[in-house]
Fold each of these.
Amino acid sequence: MSMGSDVSKPVRLKSERSKTEHRAFFGRKSGKRLHGGQQQLFDNLLPQLRVELPEGKVFSPKNIFGRAGRKKILEIGYGGGEHLTRQALKNPDDDFIGCEVFRGGIGKILKKIDAENIPNISLFTEDAYLLLKALPDASIDACYLLYPDPWPKLRHHKRRFISAITLQELARVIIPGGLFYFASDIEDYANWTLAHMLHQPDFEWKISSKPQFWHIPFAGWQPTRYEAKARREGREQSFYFSFTRALPAKVPLMFSSPSA
Ligand SMILES: C[S@@+](CC[C@H](N)C(=O)[O-])C[C@H]1O[C@@H](n2cnc3c(N)ncnc32)[C@H](O)[C@@H]1O
């Protein structure tokens, strides 16, 4: 496979912190000042859509976002929310939750939700890892992580969202047979992700016989804002990975005892 570095090499977990330590959020939360209309949406619409961590910091299966019996889809780091709002409009019978900490991005999605009256999106505005920790086991049908911050410097790799700790939580909250989607234009982050995933027995990489299938976008894909930026900056190809949450191992059938 011509993806540059060898994904079978051991994962560089040394550049992560301890395997159990809480991963702090690193990044930009504020940006330009909000203009009048956006501030109003923060004051009036956001409180209606916001997912708050429950006391004790763990949701019961009954009090997580969305309505019972509907699929629950998570998007981590939705940026301006282009992909999330498209998905929510396309799949009105599913419930979506978007995690984003950057106020500019939250402002953009609020504007879109308000303008298009989108009823099936909830928003979590803190570090997505806190939400993952709080979700009940097997409570999410699919999760998207699209163009996560690449943190290219070696000393910053520990800030990448993909880590042994976050994958452990993702494996816990995604239902068996559920999907985890990852996209990036940065080859080093793609290799990093594959190396972590291949060390995580709870996920199976969905491979195909098509040549360079990892460059083929997901079905129905439309570029996100960051993908468009990557193309403008000359990064011609992206990596699109889908992983299935493995089904539990089959319990061997018990033989009935032979009759005497
Ligand atoms: C490079 S941008 C990509 C945005 C969007 N997915 C796209 O493709 O256009 C990554 C986004 O992830 C958000 N982010 C990074 N770490 C996060 C975290 N721990 N929880 C929630 N959002 C996070 C950042 O604020 C940023 O908006």
Amino acid sequence: MWSLKKREVAGKTIRGGCFDLCVIGGGATGLGCALDAQLRGLRTVLVEAGDFVSQTSSASTKLAHGGVRYLELAAASLDYGQFRMVLRALHERRHMLEAAPHLAHPMELLVPCFSAWERFYYGAGLKAYDGIAGKARISPSRILSRREALDRLPGLRSEGLAGAVTYADGQFDDARYGMALAQSFSRLNGELLNYARVVDLERRGDGRLTGVVVEDRLAGERFSIAARAILNCTGPFSDTLRQMANPSLAKRLRLSKGIHILLPMREMRGDAALLIPRTEDGRLIFALPWYGSLLVGTTEKEMAPDEEVTVRAEEIEYLLRYIHRFLDTRWTRADVQSAFAGVRPLVACGGKVNTRRLIRDHEIEVDRRSGLVSVLGGKWTTYRAMAEDGVNAALRVLGEAPVAARTLHYALDGAEGYESGYWQKLAGRYGISEGTAEHLAQKFGTRSEDILSLIASDSSLAVPLCAGTAAIAAEVVYCVREEMAQTVEDVLARRIGVQFHSLRQAWEAAPAVGKWMAVELGWTEEQRARAVTEYQTGIDRLLRMAGLPPALLGPAAGPEFDPKGPGEDHAGLHRSH
Ligand SMILES: Cc1cc2nc3c(=O)[nH]c(=O)nc-3n(C[C@H](O)[C@H](O)[C@H](O)COP(=O)(O)OP(=O)(O)OC[C@H]3O[C@@H](n4cnc5c(N)ncnc54)[C@H](O)[C@@H]3O)c2cc1C
């Protein structure tokens, strides 16, 4: 079985090692670059300051898309850069769907129209979107009558509705997609380590970089890694690394925060998704079915690099206000199951003032003095194309002959042998509930069998982690043994997704996760209790700061929750390392 090495083993191999390429950052960009480089024969190591995919790459809207708004911007401002970005993303969208069919699937989105002009405008725009996609089109857009729109999206507000336009994009599980990239890289003998922050860069007398100094945040030690080329894939943190390599470089990034919330589906039955095409501040808002709940987002607000990444009560109210204009169901903050915030790393260009107008395209920068290659900006959807460009630049820095990228048709971990209805086979073969079979298949693909084989030797691993969740104890054991999970959050958030689905369910599942992690990682009783308490305290803080009801309702939970009142403390859902 090929999997991520145990962390201590990986640490020993990497420590003092000598590599062709060192990738800094374990988000979509870094993991994509590492896989691409290793496939092209470069001996590659990746180091990540926190957990893999723990920053922007697990806080996206989870759409593999060209971006209908960017197409509109391209047309309105005759901006060829925006157009080129949409074109490339539409082709990469197909790759995302094919490379990991257990983690990505086509999704139909419905744009409600309130006049004949809107039906014409959005209909024509989405036909252009189809046309640009060409052979990479998923399915053709359609113009719907008022009746057809209401049938397609139960729960849509009918007052003033003239009809709708539907079109297709892709939806994917961003956190698991990142883990599949990590696993795929590892099975090609790539080396990677989480909780390993680059704190300094090593260089020759002429300033050329020769390696990185890493702080192992769990062991509390520092060590060096020698590498012939260094790739900066640190997303929103890219300027810090660029200036570490060459202090004379000017900052390039503009940071823009976006939040999402998870709501119960209620009347929004079925699989159709809603796109609200225009808000008063000129944005789009999506309401998308997501593992049986409704994912709503996003907001957009420019932020300073040192600002805390938080979900604020007023941001949640903003999203609720908009979806209430388009959907019949009423939700309050008390209904919010989960919420998360992320930071877009946008490349500043020209004199554009508003981050909403900045192109989501990427840029490869090679610093002549240090040789640092930075992969800046971009989107999840274009991660593969960004990796191709980034590794091409790294090959040039290395003075190597060009080698073609091999990622376009490369099946990611868990995709081999996967087919629709795979979960039914799992349920039949292993006698597990349909809910658990579906959950495992959607998160781990054909790797599910590795998880289920653990139950054969210990049936207590078949137990759900808490009431109402499909996730089972065997996943915790698998994620520690095979996916380098080190904390309760690593498991409940990025590995099995319970935290993104429901903060309260994650709070409840924490003791069971702590129990199994303690067995696997040899924690003392004190370490186990601390790990669980720290996690639950973190969730309590997240809920409180976002103005959401506490995990533990009742007197122990503190002051009574007021679903209408503003959150008092705006420190919010925190992301940092
Ligand atoms: C609200 C929102 C919605 C979005 N929706 C979509 C969408 O629907 N579709 C889409 O295609 N794109 C979407 N995006 C964009 C997409 O999520 C990002 O472009 C992408 O995730 C960026 O990945 P990254 O790897 O560059 O950055 P990150 O995921 O932030 O990864 C950078 C990593 O570098 C690490 N790091 C930083 N400093 C160091 C150091 N010194 N040493 C080691 N590691 C370090 C960090 O810990 C981090 O994990 C969205 C973004 C946001 C914010």
